[in-house]
C-alpha cells in the first residue's frame, strides 16, 4: 500500500487506495459497452468481428494502463465513439476506402496529432478554434451516432418519397426499444453500468425469442487478432485525395480528447480560471500515441473517454484508478464467446444514449446570438443529414468563416492572433474536404 501511495501520490491528492479501486471499477462499468459496440460498428467495414473484440480490449488496456502508470491520470482511453462511425460509415461504406487504408489514415492522423503535441502547438490550435464550433461538433456527432442507432433498431428505414421513414415493429425492434428504455431509466436513476446492463438484458431477450444462440463456452482464450493486426496500409493512405479524412480524424480527436480532459479535470479541480488544464502534457502524448498504437493493432482512433468522469465522481484522482480500469479490459479478453453473440439491435440503444450524452453539449451554446447559432446549426444537422461527419465539419466551419467575414469581425480582431489561427485552420479543414 505504501508503494502504491508513493508511486501514484494518492495521499497527496486527498484520496485512498480503496477509493481509487472503486473509481477504477466504476469507470470500467461505465465504458465496458465499447467492447461490444466498437466491433459491431467496425465489422461492417469488412473487418473480422472476433479479432476486433480482442483488439478493442487490447487497445483499451494499453492506452489506459499508460495513462495510469505514466501520466498518473484516472482518465481511461478506448476506441472513440463517433470516430469509429466516421471510419465505417464515411470512409469504408460511403467513400469505398478499404479498411486497411482507413487504418493507415487513422495512423497518420495520430502521427500528426503527436507532432502537434510537441511544443504545445496542439493546445494553441484547440484554443484558437471557437468554442461554439467545438460544442457543435460534439452535438452533430451525437445526432449522427443516434441516427445510426435508430437505423440499427429498425425504427428508421429508407423511403423513396421522404428519404427516411418509420420501419416495422418486428420482434427484434420491440426488444431493442425495451433495451433503450432500460438504459434510459438506469441513467436517470444514475445506476452504474446502465448502458452495459441494457445491452446484456436486450441480448438475453434475444435468446428467449430464439434469435440469439448461446455459446458453447463462456470462458476461453480470446480470438486471434491476426486478421486485422498490423494490416494497416499507410502508403495507400498517403494519396492526395485522402488528406481530408486524415485531418478530419485529427480535428475530431482534438475536440474529443480536449473536451473530455477539460470536463474530467474540472471535476478534479485541475482547471484554472483561464480554462487551462494542469499537467495536460502527458495525457496529450498518451492520447496521440494510443491512436498510433490502436491503428497498428487494427482499430479506429483511441481517445480519452468522458465516462471516466463516473469514476472521478466515485473518488478517483490518480493513475491507480486507470490501472484498475485497464485490468478490467484485460480480463474481458477471456469472455469473448459471450461478447461475440451480442446482436446489432442490442447495441443500437447504447448508440442512441451515447448520442444523447454527446448532443447535450449544445446546451452551452448562446442561442440568442445568431452569428454563433447559424454555423453551429449547420454543423450539427448536416452531419446526420449528409451521413458524413467530415462534410458537417467542412460546412459548419465554412459557414462560420463566411458569416464572420461578412459582419466585419476580421477588422474587429485585427490584432488577435488566435482569431487568425482559428480561421486559418477553419479554411484548411473546409478545403481539404
Automatic annotation (TrEMBL):
Listed InterPro entries: Azg-like (IPR045018), Azg-like_bact_archaea (IPR026033), NCS2 (IPR006043)
Keyword presence, Iron: no
Assigned keywords, A-Z: Cell membrane, Membrane, Transmembrane, Transmembrane helix, Transport
Organism: Fusobacterium animalis ATCC 51191
Gene Ontology MF terms: purine nucleobase transmembrane transporter activity
Family that this chain belongs to: Belongs to the nucleobase:cation symporter-2 (NCS2) (TC 2.A.40) family. Azg-like subfamily.
Protein name: NCS2 family nucleobase:cation symporter-2
This protein's encoding gene: yieG
Entry GO CC: plasma membrane
PANTHER family: XANTHINE/URACIL PERMEASE C887.17-RELATED (PTHR43337), XANTHINE_URACIL PERMEASE C887.17-RELATED (PTHR43337:SF1)
Amino acid at each position: 500500500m505504501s508503494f502504491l501511495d508513493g508511486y501514484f501520490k494518492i495521499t497527496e491528492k486527498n484520496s485512498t487506495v480503496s477509493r481509487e479501486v472503486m473509481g477504477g471499477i466504476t469507470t470500467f462499468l461505465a465504458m465496458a459497452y465499447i467492447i461490444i459496440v466498437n466491433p459491431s460498428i467496425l465489422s461492417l467495414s469488412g473487418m473480422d468481428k472476433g479479432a476486433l473484440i480482442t483488439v478493442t480490449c487490447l487497445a483499451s488496456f494499453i492506452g489506459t494502463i499508460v495513462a495510469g502508470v505514466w501520466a498518473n491520470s484516472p482518465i481511461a482511453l478506448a476506441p472513440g465513439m463517433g470516430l469509429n462511425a466516421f471510419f465505417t460509415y464515411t470512409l469504408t461504406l460511403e467513400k469505398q476506402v478499404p479498411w486497411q487504408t482507413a487504418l493507415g489514415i487513422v495512423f497518420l492522423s495520430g502521427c500528426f496529432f503527436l507532432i502537434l503535441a510537441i511544443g504545445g502547438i496542439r493546445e494553441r490550435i484547440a484554443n484558437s478554434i471557437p468554442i461554439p464550433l467545438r460544442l457543435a461538433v460534439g452535438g452533430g456527432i451525437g445526432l449522427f451516432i443516434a441516427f445510426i442507432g435508430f437505423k440499427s433498431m429498425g425504427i428508421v428505414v429508407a423511403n423513396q418519397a421522404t428519404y427516411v421513414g418509420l420501419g416495422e415493429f418486428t420482434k427484434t425492434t420491440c426488444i431493442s426499444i425495451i433495451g433503450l428504455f432500460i438504459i434510459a431509466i438506469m441513467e436517470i436513476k444514475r445506476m452504474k453500468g446502465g448502458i452495459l446492463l441494457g445491452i446484456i438484458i436486450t441480448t438475453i431477450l434475444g435468446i428467449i425469442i430464439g434469435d440469439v444462440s448461446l455459446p458453447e463456452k463462456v470462458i476461453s482464450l480470446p480470438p486471434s487478432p491476426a486478421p486485422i493486426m498490423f494490416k494497416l496500409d499507410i502508403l495507400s493512405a498517403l494519396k492526395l485525395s485522402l488528406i481530408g479524412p486524415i485531418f478530419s480524424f485529427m480535428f475530431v480527436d482534438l475536440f474529443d480528447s480536449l473536451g473530455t480532459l477539460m470536463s474530467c479535470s474540472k471535476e478534479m479541480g485541475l482547471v484554472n480560471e483561464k480554462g487551462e488544464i494542469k499537467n495536460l502534457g502527458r495525457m496529450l502524448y498518451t492520447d496521440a500515441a494510443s491512436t498510433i498504437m490502436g491503428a497498428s493493432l487494427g482499430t479506429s482512433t483511441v481517445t480519452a473517454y468522458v465516462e471516466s468522469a463516473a469514476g472521478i465522481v466515485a473518488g478517483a484522482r490518480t493513475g491507480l484508478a486507470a490501472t484498475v480500469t485497464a485490468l478490467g479490459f484485460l480480463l474481458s479478453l477471456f469472455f469473448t464467446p459471450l461478447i461475440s453473440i451480442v446482436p446489432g439491435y442490442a447495441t443500437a440503444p447504447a448508440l442512441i444514449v451515447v448520442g444523447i450524452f454527446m448532443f447535450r453539449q449544445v446546451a452551452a451554446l448562446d442561442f440568442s446570438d445568431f452569428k454563433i447559432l447559424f454555423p453551429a446549426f449547420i454543423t450539427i444537422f448536416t452531419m446526420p443529414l449528409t451521413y458524413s461527419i467530415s462534410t458537417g465539419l467542412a460546412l459548419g466551419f465554412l459557414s462560420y468563416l463566411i458569416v464572420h467575414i461578412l459582419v466585419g469581425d476580421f477588422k474587429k480582431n485585427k490584432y488577435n492572433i488566435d482569431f487568425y489561427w482559428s480561421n486559418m485552420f477553419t479554411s484548411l479543414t473546409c478545403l481539404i474536404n
